[in-house]
Amino acid sequence: MTTLPAARRRSPLGAAIGLSLEADRRATLITFVTFGLRPTVLVLVFYLVKVIVDAAAAHDTGALAAGVAGIALASALAVGSVTYSIEQSVRMIEGTAAVVDRRLMTLIGRLPGVAHLDDPGVRDQIEVLRQERVHLSEGGDAFSLVLGATVRAAVTGVILAMIQPVLLLLPLLAVPPLLATRRAQRHRDEAVGRAAGAARLARHLLAVGASPAAAKELRLFGLGPHLRARHAEAAGAADREVTRTVWRNLIATSAASALFALGYCAALMFVLYRFTRGQVSLGDVILTLGLVTSVSTQLNQGVQFFGFLQQALAASRRLLRLEEYADRAAHGAGEGVPAERLTDGIRLEAVEFRYPGSDSRALGDVDLVLPAGSVVAVVGANGAGKSTLIKLLAGLYRPTSGRITVEGTDLASVDADLWHRRTSACFQDFSRLEFSVRHSVGAGSPALAEDDAHVTRAVEQGGAAGLVAGLPGGLAAHLGRSYDDGVDLSGGEWQRIALARARMRPAPCLLVLDEPTAAIDPLAEDALLTAYVRAARQTVARSNGITLFASHRLSTARLADLIVVVDQGRIAQLGVHEDLMAQDDGIYRDLYERQSRAYA
Ligand SMILES: Nc1ncnc2c1ncn2[C@@H]1O[C@H](COP(=O)(O)OP(=O)(O)OP(=O)(O)O)[C@@H](O)[C@H]1O
């Protein structure tokens, strides 16, 4: 499990503000100016009250009138700007939320392959960041509130110093509560990180327990109470970890606030004492009372705003840490350009692979040549390593040792994105992309998604022509329940869409199909796979590419130029159907004969 080091290159505050500026520069600047200055208006009003009281005592009508006019103007400005500034801040927050979502998608997209996403340490950080998105999107808002509180505190300080410099000690007493809050936030952040594993389990259990797809099995097997008990246990463990820290934090912040309350009482007594001795005016007493009283409100607000900002900064730090991790991972990836056309083929040399965090070998001692232009079938029992081999060839994982070469170039030295563009795939756990048919199929080659003739050809080759013809709107029909007018498909129908998607690339060097017809009924399966592989053979012929498919139905393996039999992570046999059938004690012949009897 990877522990991500602290981000070093950028400041979390700068990054949080940068997100808001990127979202809406104008709204952000207006929010900073209005939220930054408005709180100070109240301090000016206190000052103008002092001017009015002292002018009244001195019968100075000019100063009196100026004071009243000043109060009217300041109040009008403050009230008039409220609605506008709140509107701008809402715009900024909403825009920032969208930018944060895109940054999160970008950083996940930058992680090469899928090995990083298998790492529980990385997954936990991504999960916590997903939860903290809301704090990050409010980062600019929190900053403007802290800015407003700081400007107001500075102006208050200047005025208090003019009345009596010793009163400046009062804002200083605000420092311990602020430091305590900052420390509390850090402890809370650490506790959330420690609780991430338990919280992730609780979310998974909730997702299963509340999923319509899992409802059938949950009811049938009576799993509801078991799931609820495990959820209570996991959520309780996560909650206890955070609650312990919250209580410890509360004690520390309360002690710091009590210190400030004592100082506040002492300041009031001191000014009243000086007034009884005629050392300050009545206006000064009223001004001090107003300011000192508001210092306590300001402090509470300031601490609260500072807490918001700390939450945003914690999320910003996590985002930066993950982005630097993704940068390092992307930097370590290859940059070479893979061949566009094969003449030799793909070779696996002494390849061994262990999944991240796993001690056992999923593949070992694999030496294999996949000739250019060939159709290869990979067969073997459950867990033999077929999907693992396919994922390595597709560049989603790198071998733990050994190497895979394409036209003699190590795949590890090649830009993974470029290699992905030279490949196409239909995975065993294919995605049900809930878009229109055009875009769900077209996702296989986004540049060609609007080419209806091309998409229609892919749909036909995926065996989905009849299905799409029956949908309202044809290619325009929305798939899935995400839309009001969306149509949901059966498992086999979704698989036909995934098969069509895999046919979108015009000339892939490698087309991998992992159990591509597993959800399709056995009568249609053979015919569909045979037609599909024949058509694929023609498509990949443009690049002299390789079509490789894994299938449990050995009758389909007869289509292949080369059959690779995998057993317990090793290549057990290699050859064409006839040769493998001729080997008396081979796994292939045994499997083939048993299947033929079962299907007969
Ligand atoms: N993400 C993973 N993390 C850890 N181990 C894994 C992971 N995926 C697969 N394995 C393990 O690797 C081994 C090979 O799995 P693989 O999925 O390649 O088998 P397969 O031949 O495709 O099986 P099936 O026919 O059931 O699809 C198995 O022991 C499996 O438990």
UniProtKB/TrEMBL annotation:
Q: Which UniProt keywords apply?
A: ATP-binding, Membrane, Nucleotide-binding, Transmembrane, Transmembrane helix
Membrane-protein topology = Multi-pass membrane protein
For this protein, what is any one GO molecular function term? ABC-type transporter activity
Which residue ranges does the record assign to the ABC transporter domain?
346-593
Indicate the transmembrane segments per the record.
29-49, 61-86, 153-179, 250-273
Question: Key word 4Fe-4S present in the record?
Answer: no
| Localization per record | Cell membrane
Keyword presence, Aminoacyl-tRNA synthetase: no
Q: Which residues form the ABC transmembrane type-1 domain?
A: 140-311
Report the principal subcellular site. Answer: membrane
One GO cellular component term of this record is:
plasma membrane
Q: Entry's Pfam families?
A: ABC_tran
This protein is called ABC transporter ATP-binding protein
- Organism annotation: Streptomyces genisteinicus
Print the organism lineage: Bacteria, Bacillati, Actinomycetota, Actinomycetes, Kitasatosporales
